[in-house]
Protein 1
Amino acid sequence: SYYFLEEKVEGDWVEVEKLELEYDVGWTDEAWIILMDDTVEWEVDWEWLYGELPIGRYRMGKEIIDFRKTGDYDTRIYYVIFEVEG
């Protein structure tokens, strides 16, 4: 499921460089139902795409569609911020 990583560098969020892969990345499109005021946990292994992250402050972005009915939806990117410590 598509996501992206950014690192905080001198006050700005900068996209983390992806590893050079032999093949293009193909993403899946899951539909998760997230109830109002609820949470969902999603486990991610980013090492295959980004490698081992060095010490730093990061955020992971994921696009979420708030679907109400056909033609009535909003799309936003939500972030989780985390730190890699030594």
Protein 2
Amino acid sequence: LMGWQTFATVFGTVFLAELGDKTQLATLLFASRAGTSLLAVFLAASLALVAATALGVLAGAAITSHVQPRYFSYVAGVGFILIGIWTIWRA
């Protein structure tokens, strides 16, 4: 049974995180080429995102058996903060 609150939270978080990232920009560039099949670009980019997401889900499931999710959240939070600082530093 699917938890709709979890679904909505994950969808919103991932959707916002993906807007304007390198993946979306690369997809935009591929789609802007003359004569390119937009369906092929869409399907290839979608499949790549699904495959990468599947790896993330599998890794999360494997990590959970060894590390409490709370600690993993701390590490992820610190990682996002460091990426933010690095991004501001480079800007």
Protein 3
Amino acid sequence: MTPTLEPHDPAAPPALLIDIKALAVVLDRSVSSLERDQAAGRLPAPVRVGGSKRWRLAEVRDWVAAGCPDRRTWDAVRAARR
């Protein structure tokens, strides 16, 4: 079964944080390729929630719009926007 980002309840708000499976759906990539990208610093930094990693969906969208830069460049872009 493919994970979806849309809630089952139409009245429910959209997900703000997504796990790597949902990130794979959003980016149309495999989980294993994203794990390699994460280890190499080619994705935005995840947020730690308990013992799990989550990505901010809004940040992922902004990152893609910026051309998917590596983490160091992305962090600099985000810092300049503040």
Protein 4
Amino acid sequence: LSEISGSISDADSTAQGAFHIKAKSDKGKEYQIWIQNEGEYRFCDILPGIYTLELFRDTDSNRKYSLGEAFPFIPAERFYLYPDSISVRSRWPNEGNDIVLPK
């Protein structure tokens, strides 16, 4: 087993809500974590493979991605897809996968 880690921050200093991060393997395995504040994140004890990271900030605190509303207007929650795949090998932690959620 191995791990993926890094830091997470938000370019919008007024934004609130927990961060939901999902690591998806090319072999179909998924891992999810919730981070309450900006700072470090870590997926521990994950299987080897090629992973993509997805993230959204849960501004309405319902613990799921919200698409927003047309009337009254409520914007969708901000979503981010890490721009590169992450190769995870057994016993080789993959560090420094830093995420800055854009405005």
